[in-house]
Sequence to fold (69 residues):
Amino acid sequence: MTQATKATVDWDPNKKQWHVRVQIGEEVIKRPLPKAAQDANEDSLRSQAVATAKDEGYTVDPSTVAIVR
Fold:
């Protein structure tokens, strides 16, 4: 698997759900996290971001996942 540059999880108030953005160089993949509650803890959001990246064929170091509330 290819190593992603970084990942960011942020809350979209319009859609009322979390989104993860996985950046691989200049490419950015954005996916929703529909099962995550608005008040989800950071560890849960990080693990879901890592799992989403893995589903897309990329690896992400959990310590590099940024949570934007």
In short: The mean pLDDT is 95. The radius of gyration is 11 Å.
